[in-house]
Design goal:
The chain has helices spanning 2-6, 13-16, 23-41, 163-166, 193-199, 275-278; strands spanning 57-59, 67-72, 78-83, 93-98, 107-113, 116-119, 122-131, 136-144, 150-157, 180-182, 189-191, 203-205, 212-215, 229-232, 240-241, 254-257, 262-265, 286-292, 295-301, 314-318, 321-331, 334-343, 349-354, 356-362, 368-374, 383-388. By secondary structure, the chain is mainly beta. Among the domains are: 1-40, no CATH class; 63-159, no CATH class; 306-398, no CATH class. The strands form seven sheets. It has a four-stranded antiparallel sheet with strand order 1-26-25-24, with no helix packed on it. A hairpin with a 5-residue loop joins strand 24 and strand 25.
C-alpha cells in the first residue's frame, strides 16, 4: 500500500481491505498478542538462574589499555593486542604479554603490527608485505617463543587467507593456486593443495599429525541432512564424514583443551537467521573429538535447554564444568545484562559473572576464562577480565 501511494497508483478495494469474514480471527490474534504482552509486563524480569554463592577470583590487567583482541599463549599466559592509535595501515596494534593473577603489569612484546596469532607457546606477528610481479606477494613475520623470535618470509601467489578471514561466515573464494592456511593452534603456515581445491578456504589444520577438518557452512538451515564436518587423517587422504550435522560449526568453533586431550566443537556460528529454528530445539549439542589411530572418534553431548539456551550461548568446557556465555538476556522489558553460567557435573546451573560480553576464550588447561565486556551494553568501551574457575575447586564442581 505504501509503495502504491509513493508511485501514485490506485489500489482495488480487495487489495487493501480484508474480507469481513476474516475480521473476527484477526481480532482474536491481536487480542491474544496484547494479552501476552501485558501479562509479561507484570512478570519479574530478574534472571531465573540463581547467582552462585561462591566467590571466583577475577583478574584485570593494570593500566588504561584499549584491548582489541587476545589469545592464550598457554595455560596461564595471555597475549593481547592494544590499539595504539596509529593511522598507519597495518601498524595499529601493539602486542602485550600478561600473566593473570601475578603482580606484574602487562609487558610489551611487539610494536606496530596488525595480523597476529598466539598459541601453544608460540607467538606470530606480521611485520610487512611487498607486492612483487605477477600478483605475487611476500609476507614477512616474526614467530617463536617470547624473547626468541625468528624472522621468516612467505611468498605466495595472490593474498593468503588470514585467520580472521578463515573464521568469517562469508568466506567463499578458492585459493587453489595458494593453498596455505595458518593454524589457529600453532600459528604455523600449513599447505594442503588437495583440500584447498576441494573445500576452498573451508578446512582447518589440526595439531601435529592429528590431520585436518573440513566444513560445509553454506546453508541457511540450522541442521543439515548430511554431515557438516569431515575428517582427513593426512594431506593425501580424502576426508570422511563425521556424525555432526549442525551447519553453524565453523573453523573458529574448534578448540583444543589439554585437560581433556581432545578437540571441542560447538555450533558457535548460529546467526539471526537461525534463531526461530533454534528456539524449538530441545538442546544445543557439543562434541569432543579425539584421534585414535587413523580415526577421529566423536562423542556428542546435548544437555536439556533452559532459559540460557534461548539466548544463543557460546560454550566453553572447564575443570569446574560447562561454561555458557551470553551477551544479553532477551526479555519482554528489553535487553538485560548477560554473563557467565556454570553447569556442574551434577547438573546444577548458577550464574558466576554478570557482564555484557563481547568475546571470550578459555585457557587450554581449563581454569582461566578471558572475556572482553562493556559497561552496560556499550561495546565501544570494552574491558578485559579473567575468571579463575578453579579458584574455588572442588566446591564449584559439586
Amino acid at each position: 500500500m505504501i509503495r502504491a501511494v509513493q508511485e501514485n497508483k490506485a489500489l482495488k478495494k480487495e487489495q487493501w481491505l480484508v474480507p469481513e469474514s476474516e475480521w473476527l480471527s484477526i481480532k482474536r490474534k491481536i487480542v491474544a498478542g496484547a494479552e501476552t504482552y501485558f501479562r509479561q509486563q507484570t512478570v519479574p524480569q530478574d534472571d531465573p538462574i540463581p547467582s552462585s554463592r561462591l566467590k571466583f577470583a577475577v583478574h584485570t590487567p593494570q593500566g588504561q589499555l584499549k584491548i582489541e583482541n587476545f589469545a592464550w599463549l598457554n595455560d596461564d599466559e595471555l597475549v593481547f593486542g592494544v590499539n595504539n592509535g596509529s593511522k598507519e595501515s597495518r601498524k595499529e596494534i601493539d602486542l602485550y604479554f600478561w600473566q593473570p593473577g601475578s603482580d606484574e603489569t602487562p609487558r610489551n612484546i611487539a610494536l606496530g603490527t596488525y595480523f597476529w596469532c598466539a598459541g601453544r607457546g608460540t607467538v606470530m606477528y606480521e611485520t610487512g608485505q611487498i607486492a612483487l610481479e605477477d600478483d605475487v606477494f611476500e609476507y614477512s613475520y616474526r614467530i617463536g617463543p617470547i624473547g626468541d623470535f625468528t624472522e621468516q618470509r612467505l611468498r605466495v601467489k595472490g593474498r593468503p587467507i588470514r585467520p580472521e578471514q578463515v573464521q568469517d561466515w562469508g568466506v567463499r573464494w578458492s585459493r587453489a593456486e595458494n593453498p596455505y592456511l595458518r593454524s589457529r593452534f600453532t600459528c604455523q603456515w600449513v599447505k594442503n593443495k588437495r583440500l584447498s581445491e576441494q573445500y576452498h578456504s573451508r578446512w582447518l589444520p589440526l595439531i601435529g599429525r592429528d590431520g585436518f577438518l573440513t566444513f560445509r557452512f553454506d546453508s541457511w538451515k540450522l541442521i543439515g541432512e548430511q554431515s557438516s564436518v569431515r575428517y582427513a587423517s593426512n594431506p593425501e587422504k580424502d576426508s570422511e564424514p563425521l556424525p555432526i550435522q549442525w551447519i553453524p560449526v565453523l573453523p573458529k568453533c574448534v578448540n583444543y583443551y589439554d585437560f581433556k586431550n581432545g578437540y571441542f566443537l560447538s555450533p558457535c556460528g548460529i546467526g539471526n537467521k537461525h534463531i526461530r529454528e533454534l528456539k524449538v530445539q530441545s538442546c544445543i549439542p557439543y562434541w569432543w573429538l579425539k584421534k585414535v589411530g587413523e580415526r577421529m572418534e566423536v562423542e556428542e553431548f546435548c544437555p536439556p535447554a533452559d532459559s540460557v539456551t534461548k539466548n544463543n550461548p557460546i560454550k566453553f568446557p572447564s575443570k569446574a564444568g560447562m561454561l555458557r556465555l551470553i551477551s544479553e538476556r532477551e526479555t519482554f522489558h528489553g535487553a538485560k545484562i548477560g554473563g557467565v553460567y556454570l553447569t556442574t557435573q551434577n547438573g546444577t546451573v548458577t550464574k558466576i559473572f554478570d557482564a555484557w560480553i563481547n568475546d571470550a576464550q578459555m585457557s587450554p588447561g581449563g581454569c582461566l576464562l578471558a572475556l572482553r565486556h562493556g559497561p552496560g551494553n556499550n561495546f565501544n568501551k570494552l574491558g578485559l577480565s579473567v575468571i579463575d574457575v578453579c579458584s574455588v575447586l572442588p566446591l564449584a564442581t559439586q
